[in-house]
């Protein structure tokens, strides 16, 4: 394509590239000429941005100009961070020095990059905004400390998963990264193993800006600082480090242990944090929230708690400290009841999204219809409600319809209380509803879905999953009646027609015959194959979408095996 004659114009924009037209007529262009020479570097970089990773890597090998444009237009770089990358990482990063998002991933079974390689990243990437480390178990606290001493001015987001450092390195990052706003921690086993004084191990400022250790007298007793019983020296240290982490707006903790470790971190960022996500992290989170949010009015607008030990005490702490709460996500929290949800309803009047997956431990009390009723009466700005495992009744639905005029998304899942009467009520009262999801509600039949089709004038999407009373024929009729309505049906069942069953029976039969050649009684194998085919024909397998796809792939492979073997036997005969 004539790339050998191309030159790079990335350093200055004074050179003008024009295609060389060769031929008798002006329209005759030699195939060896590069028509991209007339494009500015910005346009060519935009074209490269539309390509996939492999295609873009191939384009960088075409010519010097394309390599230069590719280097200057890349914003995101994902590298396999094995130990072999450490010596060549500086030259690689100097080539892509405009990258703002860097992701380093490695398997925990392999040797990852070391501390020296990590510490030089801010030197070669001055515009770095997001750094993600996954599986880099050979990066220690010293590597994070050396990285933070460069004070990356634009670094706003950090994500660490399955790494080998602990509290000391995190303290250094919190102290030396002034623009940090988003912190995600996942599966940090060394952090989980921290003992002795866990309440102060994550205190933002356990390392000062210069990297030296602060005296333990400053933060040895967090409760004394909170209660105001510490001396003036301790209070000054608390105020200093409190100001150091004011910019932290999002904190995500997943698959961690010992919840007490994060009391000082949440406490110091309570005035600036807006999103708190805790997922599958053990410990008493009631105590964490009570200690961290005690007596404060925070700006938290989103809280997600999933598979954690938390009850009404944690919900009371949230209700008293988060008046601006807009999203509450509770999934399998162990001890939350209607009382805690009523406290949220009384204090958090700005709530817009509510997701509840009710779950009771050993049959104890959990969130039910009463808590939903209190939320519907007090939170008039609700736009999205997802209820899983909650026996909701018509009075609660009536409260939602009358008090929440802006409710646009509603999902009712895993409950026997939702029947055709509730579906008819939703169709008649929820006039602003745009998206409706009904999942695993066995008492919903075609009459309830037809009622929704006749009502809900603003409905644009209806999703029905694992409702045995809803058929594909009824959904097709509903699509014909309301062409603008997108209807998604997933019955969660695998049924084959007679042709599919016969092919499957043939495949099973042939498989049994192949394995029974050394056996004298072949009639038993054939009877077993026929019984298996009969079982498949008579069984209605209820499963999720992912399970249905798995079963479909298994059955289709058996059908294809039968199709391939049948012509072979015909030719042999």
UniProtKB/TrEMBL annotation:
Residues 39-79 form the F-box domain. CDD domains: F-box_AtTIR1-like. GO terms for biological process: SCF-dependent proteasomal ubiquitin-dependent protein catabolic process. InterPro entries: F-box-like_dom_sf, F-box_dom, FBXL15_LRR, Leu-rich_rpt_Cys-con_subtyp, LRR_dom_sf. Signal peptide: none annotated. GO terms for cellular component: SCF ubiquitin ligase complex. It comes from the Eukaryota. This is F-box protein SKIP2-like isoform X1. The lineage of its organism: Eukaryota, Viridiplantae, Streptophyta, Embryophyta, Tracheophyta. The gene is LOC105122495.
């Amino acid at each position: 394509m004539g790339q050998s004659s191309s030159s790079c114009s990335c350093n200055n924009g004074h050179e003008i590239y024009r295609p060389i037209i060769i031929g008798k007529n002006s329209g005759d262009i030699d195939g060896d000429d590069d028509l991209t020479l007339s494009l500015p570097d910005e346009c060519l970089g935009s074209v490269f941005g539309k390509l996939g990773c492999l295609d873009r890597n191939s384009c960088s090998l075409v010519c010097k100009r394309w390599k230069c444009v590719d280097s200057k237009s890349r914003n995101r770089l994902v590298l396999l961070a094995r130990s072999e990358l450490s010596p060549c990482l500086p030259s690689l990063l100097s080539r892509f020095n405009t990258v703002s998002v860097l992701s380093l991933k490695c398997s925990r079974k392999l040797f990852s990059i070391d501390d020296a390689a990590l510490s030089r990243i801010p030197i070669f990437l001055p515009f770095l905004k997001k750094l993600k480390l996954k599986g880099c178990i050979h990066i220690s606290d010293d590597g994070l400390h050396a990285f933070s001493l460069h004070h990356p001015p634009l670094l706003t987001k950090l994500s660490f998963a399955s790494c080998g450092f602990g509290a000391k390195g995190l303290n250094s990052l919190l102290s030396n990264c002034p623009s940090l706003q988003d912190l995600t921690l996942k599966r940090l086993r060394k952090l989980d193993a921290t003992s002795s004084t866990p309440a102060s191990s994550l205190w933002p400022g356990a390392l000062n800006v210069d990297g030296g250790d602060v005296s333990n007298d400053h933060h040895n007793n967090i409760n004394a600082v909170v209660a105001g019983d510490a001396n003036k020296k301790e209070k000054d240290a608390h105020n200093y480090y409190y100001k150091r982490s004011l910019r932290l707006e999002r904190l995500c903790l997943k698959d961690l242990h010992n919840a007490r470790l994060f009391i000082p971190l949440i406490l110091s960022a309570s005035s600036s944090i807006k999103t708190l996500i805790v997922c599958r992290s053990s410990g008493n989170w009631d105590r964490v929230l009570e200690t961290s949010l005690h007596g404060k009015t925070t700006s938290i607008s989103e809280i997600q708690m999933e598979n954690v030990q938390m009850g009404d005490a944690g919900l009371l702490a949230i209700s008293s400290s988060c008046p601006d709460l807009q999203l509450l996500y509770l999934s399998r929290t162990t001890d939350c009841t209607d009382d805690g949800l009523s406290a949220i309803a009384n204090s958090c009047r700005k709530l817009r999204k509510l997701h509840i997956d009710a779950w009771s431990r050993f049959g104890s009390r959990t969130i039910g219809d009463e808590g939903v009723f209190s939320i519907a009466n007090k939170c008039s700005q609700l736009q999205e409600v997802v209820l899983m495992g909650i026996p909701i009744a018509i009075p609660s639905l009536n409260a939602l319809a009358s008090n929440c005029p802006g409710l646009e998304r509603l999902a009712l899942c895993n409950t026997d209380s939702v029947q055709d009467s509730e579906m008819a009520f939703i169709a008649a009262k929820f006039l602003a509803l745009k998206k409706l999801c009904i999942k695993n509600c066995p008492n919903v039949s075609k009459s309830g879905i037809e009622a929704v089709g006749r009502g809900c004038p603003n409905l644009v999407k209806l999703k029905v999953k694992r409702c045995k009373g809803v058929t594909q024929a009824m959904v097709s009729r509903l699509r014909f009646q309301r062409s603008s309505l997108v209807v998604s049906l997933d019955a969660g069942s695998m049924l084959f027609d007679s042709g599919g069953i016969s092919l499957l029976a043939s495949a099973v039969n042939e498989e049994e015959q192949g394995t029974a050649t050394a056996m004298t009684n072949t009639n038993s194998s054939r009877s077993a194959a026929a019984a298996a085919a009969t079982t498949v024909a008579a069984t209605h397998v209820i499963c999720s979408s992912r399970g249905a796809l798995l079963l479909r792939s298994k059955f289709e492979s058996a059908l294809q095996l039968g199709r391939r073997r049948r012509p072979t036997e015909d030719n042999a005969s």
